[in-house]
Amino acid sequence: MAAPDPTMPDPALSDPEFAELVDYFRAQLPDRVRALESCAAADDLPGLRRLAHQLKGAAPGFGFPEVGSAARRLEDALTHPAGPNPARAELESLIILCRSHFTDADRAA
Fold first, then answer.
1. 85 in a domain, yes or no?
2. Of 35, 63, 64, 95, which sits 20 to 30 A from 6 (CA to CA)?
């Protein structure tokens, strides 16, 4: 079986049902960011790790592999800390990336 041609668009991107799933995931991002921020404010490291793990698994399947990678880096930083606040930069990076996918309505809220 031949490997997919990376220069060709993903066929799923033209599928209307997949587009609905992408919109659904994108609509959930503001709530996920609020949950991440809430856990961070409460110093709830297990909660942050759980949310990062969920995003790591879900995001690539909805067409957001970069969010999944950022979530993996956060989960890794929380699982194997190095220093007093190892996950802060990874958390901020993930939140900024998630916000970059917000809709205009999400940004206005």
1. yes
2. 95
Question: What is d(CA 13, CA 9) in angstroms, rounded to the nearest whole number?
Answer: 7
Alpha-helical segments (H) within the chain:
16-41, 45-58, 65-79, 88-99, 104-108
**Which tokens go with 48?**
């942050």
Domain range for 76 is 22-104
Cα distance between residue 96 and residue 67, in whole Å: 10
Contacts of 51 (CB under 8 A, 6+ apart): 32, 35, 36, 39
Q: How many domains does the chain have?
A: 1
Which residues lie closer than 8 Å to 101 by C-beta, 6 or more apart? 26, 29, 64, 67
Q: What angle do CA 32, 24, 8 make, to 5 degrees?
A: 110
Cα separation, 20 vs 83, in Å, equals: 41
pLDDT in tens, 2-49: 555 544 445 555 678 888 888 899 999 999 999 999 999 999 999 999
Distance CA(61)–CA(105), nearest Å, equals 24
